[in-house]
Design brief:
With 388 residues, this protein is mostly beta strands. It has 4 helices and 21 strands. Strands 1, 2, 3, 4, 5, 6, 7, 8, 11, 14, 15, 17, 18 and 19 form a 14-stranded mixed β-sheet that branches. The longest helix is centred in the middle third of the chain and has 13 residues. It is globular. It starts with a helix and ends in a 16-residue tail after the last helix.
């Protein structure tokens, strides 16, 4: 609710052009002052009466930095990455050019890098929100003493540690199906501790034009309920602050006001939003904004027990009931329920089920694979930035 109020309080009207049309080209392109292989995404959608987008493949994409040509190559359908890493620099003119496989030519206006301003701090606090829910509130602070930034766009990337709650260093494997023989062995890979990284689904916009100082103070970026398993162990968030021009800010703000969808540039919209990219062909509709933005970043880490002193951690992503599938063939086709579960990778070994045991119980305590192998929802590769 607070974010919505902030957005509503910091918005100026932006004129829309509304036409009756069926299809529009969508361009997503932000180049920053961070050295990187920057990305341009191109898709097409039927804006009125249908949903979804289709990647525009086999396009030719390049950016002109004054007289320097920077080429982009398609790395996945509709996604084009610069062939070399580069960064936007002050006082240079940047212009985006796209030629689609169908012969459409798109050209952006010339734009320059916005004012550079770094993030002051990112803070994580335990709070009870307006709905009475306890959790972690993550806020950002920033200040530009020159007063030249004013228009901000925020996004984040969050990474969290996953610990499989019913992991064992052993796994089951089928030795023989006739006769049925199942045994255990050491797992060949790390399956207890994993990591998962997710990007924010949309951006938060904030402007300081109605303030005496160009200051962002305790702006809420993310709230995570205490019961959410993503903070059960260790959590990290990388907050990104983009300083934008007034025109870029108004474009993104208009998209947010028109849509409640997750992808701001890939959903049905009630009108056609003009950006700074046009098509040479008059009958081609295009929306999108070629943005050259100064970016500042700040990463923080915290553990669950840094803020909560009880020993009860949040529940896991799913329930982790145990299963005692019998080894002997029971179904009408003569298949072993345990063998079927192992071969279909539905269950993982957790422990032995020693005798005496009922006839309908198998020799192993099994759990859903997601409860014994964290790779189902993450990766066992430790991120380069991770600090325990």
């Amino acid at each position: 609710m607070l974010m919505a109020l902030l957005l509503m309080a910091c918005v100026e009207p932006f004129e829309l052009s509304v036409d009756n049309f069926e299809e529009v080209l969508i361009v997503e392109a932000t180049i920053t002052n961070s050295t990187d292989n920057h990305t341009v995404k191109i898709s097409t959608t039927s804006v009125l009466g249908s949903s979804g987008t289709v990647a525009v493949e086999n396009a030719t994409v390049w950016v002109m930095e004054d007289d320097r040509m920077l080429s982009f190559s398609e790395t996945s359908p509709g996604e084009y990455r610069s062939e070399i890493a580069f960064q936007a620099v002050p006082n240079a003119d940047y212009q985006l050019f796209i030629q689609t496989d169908s012969g459409v030519t798109l050209t952006s206006e010339k734009v320059r890098l916005s004012t550079e301003s770094s993030i002051g701090s990112v803070i994580a606090d335990k709070i009870i929100n307006e709905d009475g829910i306890e959790g972690m509130n993550i806020t950002v602070n920033s200040f530009d003493p020159t007063g030249e930034s004013r228009y901000y766009r925020y996004s984040f990337e969050e990474t969290y540690k996953i610990v499989a709650p019913r992991w064992s260093r052993f796994e089951t494997y089928v030795v023989s199906e006739d006769p049925v023989v199942v045994d255990i062995r050491l797992r060949p890979r790390e399956e207890q501790v994993c990591f998962r990284t997710l990007n924010s689904s949309k951006s938060l916009l904030f402007e300081t034009t109605n303030q005496a100082e160009d200051r962002v103070a305790s702006l809420p970026i993310r709230f995570i309920e205490r019961s959410d398993y993503i903070i059960a162990h260790r959590y990290s968030i990388l907050v990104k602050q983009f300083v934008q021009t007034r025109e870029a800010f108004e474009y993104y703000n208009t998209l947010q006001r028109l849509s409640s969808q997750e992808n701001l540039l890939s959903q049905n919209q009630p009108g056609f939003v003009l950006g700074n990219i046009t098509a040479d062909q008059n009958n081609t509709k295009v929306t999108g904004y070629f943005d050259i933005a100064a970016v500042g970043t700040e990463r923080i880490f915290f553990n669950y027990d840094d803020f909560f002193d009880d020993i009860t951690e949040p529940n896991y992503a799913v329930g982790c009931d145990v299963f005692l599938y019998p080894l002997v063939a029971e179904d009408q086709f003569g298949n072993s329920p345990l063998v079927v579960a192992i071969e279909n990778e539905n269950l993982e070994f957790f422990n032995d089920n020693p005798p005496p045991r009922p006839n309908n119980q198998g020799p192993f305590v099994m759990v859903p694979t997601i409860c014994g192998d964290c790779n189902i929802i993450g990766t066992n590769v430790v991120p380069e930035f991770w600090v325990d």
